[in-house]
Amino acid sequence: MLPIVLNPEAISIGLAGTGEGLARRRQLLADAGISPRLISEDTPLDGLNVLFVAGLDRPAAEHLAESARGQGVLVNVEDVPELCDFHVPAAIRRGDLVLTVSTGGKSPGLAKLIREWLEHKIVPEWTGRLKDVASARAKWRADGNPPSEVAQRTRDYVRDRDWLA
Q: How many domains are there within the chain?
């Protein structure tokens, strides 16, 4: 597995499906600040980079996944790992801080349990903490500090505040 974070401003994301599956994926994308292009079986896939499929029966999902792949679109079909080019990790969001847990699709339930455990460790205050560190980092960089010094100052900043104790 290759964990990556995609910039939604640099790619086009589509969403196809019905029912609760569609609602779950729509919410996942909304939480990431993404308004996907809604796709039906007859919608052209031109310009898409990524397609999420949820709530469709197997034949419809297979057909849509094959069509998308034929146009170079990466596909995720919810709960059908063999039709997926990528898996969606369990995620915790604290503003721009995003932590993910993945089992590569082998045990989504375990990923969910670990995410729930981490949610108690990474409290909502981390939203503000990230802003504080980012502001300090910008100043350190503007002062001409090399990356190794900025990394050390970040460690010291977090340690001095006991955020990871």
A: 3
Q: For 100, which DSSP code?
A: E
Lowest mean pLDDT among 27-31, 142-146, 148-152: 27-31
Are residues 64 and 40 in contact, defined by beta-carbon separation less than 8 angstroms? no
Query: CA end-to-end span of the chain, whole Å?
Result: 30
Residues 13 and 38 both lie in one domain:
yes
Rg (CA), the chain: 19
Alpha-helical runs (H) found in the chain:
19-31, 58-70, 108-121, 126-142, 147-160
Structure tokens at 103: 């089992």
Beta bridge partners of 51: 14, 75
- The pair of three-digit structure tokens given for residue 122, joined into one six-digit string: 């990474």
Residue 87, token pair as written in the block: 């898996």
Same domain, 22 and 80: yes
The Cα-based distances of 6 to 10, 33, 34, 41, 49 in angstroms read: 8, 12, 11, 25, 11
Q: What pTM was computed for the model?
A: 0.83
23-55 pLDDT per residue, tens: 999 999 999 999 999 999 889 999 999 999 999
Task: Label the pairing between strands 74-77 and 97-101.
Answer: unpaired
CA-closest candidate to residue 97, choices 68, 129, 57: 129
